[in-house]
Amino acid sequence: MTASPSDRSDIKVTETGNSFDYSKPYAYEIKGGNRLEGDIEISGSKNAVLGVIAASMMVDGPCTLENVPDISDVHVMFELCRSLGANIEQVDQHTFKIDPTTINTYKASGQLVSKIRASYYLMGALLARCGKASIRLPGGCNFGQRPIDLHLKAFQLMGAKGARPSDIDSGIVNLTADPLHGAKIFFDIVSVGATINAMLAACKAQGKTEIINAAKEPHIVDVANFLNAMGARIKGAGTDVIKITGVPVLPGNFTYSIIPDQIEAGTYMIAAAVTGGDVTIHNLIPTHMEPLSAKMREMGYQIEEGDESIRVYKSSPDDEIYPTSVKTAPYPGFPTDLQPQTVVLLCSARGQSRMHENVWQNRFQYVPELAKMGANINVYERIAWVDGIDSFRAARVEATDLRAGAALVCAALAAKGTTYITEAKRIDRGYEHIVKKLSSLGADIRRVNIEDSYSEDTEA
Ligand code: EPZ
Fold first, then answer.
1. In terms of CB atoms within 10 Å, which end of the chain has fewer, N or C?
2. What pTM did the predictor assign?
């Protein structure tokens, strides 16, 4: 058996500081042990903005998006939209003017599509705009099967041709609206992506659509609010049943601001907690954080909520941290995208905790990496049994996917010594200016170019 990349303990740092080069392989170098202290701002939500950018492709006029996070997934999504002919102009770091009226193709079949999962939203958006969509199957972080059968089922119920799984031709989905009409769509599994895609397609379909057992995540509501601001008629987003009355035109000409990122906020809450820190996280929506806040309180952390902020701290360094049991579930349940970071938090408890991954088939792939840092975790099927440890130790580890990488960052911040997290570009896909933000809280973290890489481009 060949050693996996991160089984190798050697790492050769080649460039740092001003000579650092993003196009070369790089790692995060984290000298752990610093207590995080201070204030930080949360950026716009990755999973909301990706849906909103796709939705903007079906609008009949220009729009302006504010609070767009500066992350690589967004850059890829914009590149993809430009490849369709859309005109996208950056006004400032977080504001973009989008004019989709120049779109000249319904085809998105190049490699860019498989760089991000959210490219699948172009199926719904282009069907609505062009009456046709020819889209390569998206890839995805590898945590088990990631089918799109529910997306296709919704399109089929709305009258699209080419939406049977057997119609997929060499990895390309070729959809034709014939035309699209409203439909009653029941999802037997709660799916964020399928809910958004069905909502997009239904906005311009003839008649009424009802999506039953819809996902309720904050980003579903954000995409619906954006579309309504553009002229759509969507009711019930954020509940189990979304009702949409199709309209022929979405006029646009509106400025819309993206909601704060629930997962980024949760990651910083955990980073503050595991370093024994005292951090106030601003520009978040406290109700979105409730599943995590409740668990952290149960464990013994102090969580103080403001209108748009949360302070995380321990009332005394010697406070006992208690074990707990967590089960991921669709919103308003505990978010699966905070599962790996929360496992790091559970490592800080005295005693055994349990994490049950209820959304994805295989989202514990990072556990062997965390074990290199001293974690004591046993995974059986979808449950991880986490025994508390006194402290993490530094190691060379690999970010196996975006949130796994974020979990390793949390562990490295708490660890004694210098940790190298390779494949750090996976983390940069979803966390705006993470090095700068953590440094402002007192962390010793930087990006360093390293000699070799084992990377494949992946997506969320
Ligand atoms: C979105 O993925 C997010 N990605 C994921 O975040 C997140 O983990 C996930 O929702 C769950 O919250 C984006 O928004 C870009 P799903 P998505 O469809 O839409 C099954 C991150 O770290 N399913 O809600 O692809 C599926 O297998 C990323 O930011 C079907 O069976 O997830 C899974 O078990 C990673 N058939 C469950 O539903 C389908 O057609 C939920 O998946 C679709 C999904």
1. N
2. 0.95
